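input
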Amino acid sequence: MKASKPSVWEQTTHNGETPLFLAVSNCLLENVSFLLINGCNPNTKNYEGSSPLLTAVVRDSYDTATLLIRHGANVNLQCASGRTALHEAAKLGRKDMVKLMLGADAHSQASDSSSILLEAARGGNPDSVTLLLKYGADANIPKISGHLPIHVAADRGHLLALKMLVPVTDLAAIKQSGISPVHCAAAGAHPQCLELLIQAGFDVNFMLDQRIRKHYDDQRKSALYFAVSNGDLSSVKLLLNAGALPNQDPVNCLQIALRMGNYELISLLLRHGANVNYFCRVNPLHFPSALQYTLKDEVMLRMLLNYGYDTERCFDCPHGDKVHHLYAYEGWTSTVIKDTMFCEVITLSWLQHLSGKVVRVMLDYVDQVRICSKLKAVLQNQGIWSEIHFILTNPRSLTHLCRLKIRKCMGRLRLRCPVFMSFLPLPNRLKAYILYREYDLYGQGIFTGSW
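output
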């Protein structure tokens, strides 16, 4: 016996779409109503697993969704990825649609464990979030990635939704996730959300868990690193003023600011204790790595030197007056170059024209130093050599030597912490001299330091 043919209402396209599904997809409300009245099944999915109700919500058609529910559409039907119509309504931020489907399971999770509340946080409508919370939605259910609704709201910059989620999110759940909403607000460049989280007591020094860090090539850990990478001055100020530590990441935050050439960002980090003497993990040099970004810019160079950069290490060359060994290549390559001397770098063919000006500035921060034969040979061809030679061959002034002695007694850690100076019982003029204020070009309003 032959199987009976499906009725005209049940026939489908090659994608498994019924006439009702097509009418819903095209938002043809009258056609939808006609088909439902004539007995079309509102729960027949297409081959991709989407139901007419889910499609109506995706099309943002409240009237169509209402019609379907009145004619028996199952609000708990899931698509192939486990999402229900309520997931989509929450994502749209449509409170009216969310309210329409409150008969659905508010605890339903998609195949990636994304909860309905998380989708509401993504949509950003605080009324939808409030409604779901009243209906019993749990703010502490993570998706597979570990993210909670509070993370999504912070990342998207949904301030009002974030306010709703802060008091109902457990710190234990955040710790378990391995990432703080502070990271998310900083990564998304949302200073208002960041300020809310700081005022709520979230730790600005919460570090990314290793399982999260491994997704970043630079192995970043801190929220401050995200803000600095974005060049987001407002967020950087908020974090630093709240006590964020600037030296916690494998790649120093100061290194990122120096790469950008952002004076204000550099100044902010230095004033809050950024380490000017960090060493880069890639191509480590004999001298602290920060200098390589300032060779063409006196303003940045002076910033580093004023905050205790180890200038003497730049003149530390084991060859002295002897002839330097010749290298088969010149400069940096993809191969790691270990412990390259300053004299080898500044005498490179494309940098040696800067050597005189750079060395002259450095001499303001040291006592008598020895210039090795290789560096000397290059400096002698510079117009500023006579001034450099005079400084190298004559005694330094007593005031200069006293300043160096005081700075040495203070130590580089205190030089990186300007607040320390305010506790010293010294006249302000002397404090300014010790801190090289006369060479603070950025503080004097000089915003371009190219030689």
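quick obs: The CA atoms of residues 89 and 270 lie 47 Å apart.
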